[in-house]
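Morning. Coffee machine broken again, so started the prediction first thing and wrote up yesterday's gels while waiting. Chain of 118 residues, entered below exactly as on the submission form.
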Amino acid sequence: MLTDSQAAELRALLEAERDRILTLAHDASSFSRDRDITRIGRDSVDESAAEALYGTKLRLADRDSESLNAIEMALVRLASGNLGECEECEEPISFARLRARPMSRLCIPCQEDREEGN
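Came back before lunch.
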């Protein structure tokens, strides 16, 4: 069970990460709407580089969307008092792990088992 100060610290971490992702999403959205070919140039290398950058931004935005969902789920678990409980074994997740990755749903042993395919 998390103390009030631990819960407040994790909430602040989650909200800060959510704000960072939302800022990046806004930037990516602006970038995708602002694809003026005259600024890029007509050189095929410039166009290829611009398309590669565009694709990378879209992939990052997609990954960030998944992270945003994980953050929102963690905030719900925090509000309900379930953040910090492993979803597999129901043992506590260490505060150090939660501080490093506050959206963690599994304790380290269960996460390792999952990654090993057990």
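Residues 44-80 form the longest helix (37 residues). Going to sketch it on the whiteboard this afternoon.
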